[in-house]
Amino acid sequence: MILIVSKYLTPNGFRGITLFPFVVIRNHFDADNPVLINHEKIHLRQQLELLILPFFILYTLDYLIQLLRFKDKNKAYRNVFFEREAYSNERNRGYLKTRSFWAWRKYFIGNSH
């Protein structure tokens, strides 16, 4: 993981974004936030498993589907299956050690929040 601090590379309204192998965070103090860093590391694993480009295609497609469903950008974002896995496990520091390959699939099939 290569950590970059930049308010210019992080979209407004977000504290971080992951573009393998980079994690870009908005503020330097978030570098010490274990929950945020673990959330972004989960995205790194998801991207690596899907060889990066398919991750972004699936992410965008699911976001658009959720946007049509909820008609709300924040709800759509929170219901993207990749985000659901990351938010559900971001507080579990050992998650990536025990996480199964393509674990995001259970969030793809599971219920939306």
Main attributes of the structure:
globular, 113 residues, 11% strand, three-stranded mixed sheet, 3 strands, DUF4157 domain-containing protein, mainly alpha
In short:
This protein has 113 residues and is mainly α.
Characterize the structure shown.
The protein has six helices and three strands; from the N terminus they run E-E-E-H-H-H-H-H-H. The protein starts with a strand and ends with a helix. The protein is mainly α. The chain has one domain (2-105). It has helices at 34-49, 53-70, 73-79, 81-89, 95-98, 105-109, and strands spanning 2-5, 16-19, 22-25. The model has no long low-confidence stretch (mean pLDDT 96). Helix 1 (34-49) packs across helix 2 and helix 2 packs across helix 3 (73-79). It has a three-stranded mixed sheet, covered by helices on one side. The longest helix is centred in the middle third of the chain and has 18 residues, at 53-70.
Cα radius of gyration in angstroms: 14 Å
Summed over residues and divided by their number, the pLDDT gives a mean of 96
- The largest beta-sheet arranges its strands as 1-3-2
Structural class: mainly alpha
Distance between the amino and carboxyl termini:
29 Å
The best one-word shape is globular
| Count of β-strands | 3
* Biggest sheet features: 3 strands, mixed
Query: Could you state the oligomeric state of the chains shown?
Result: single chain
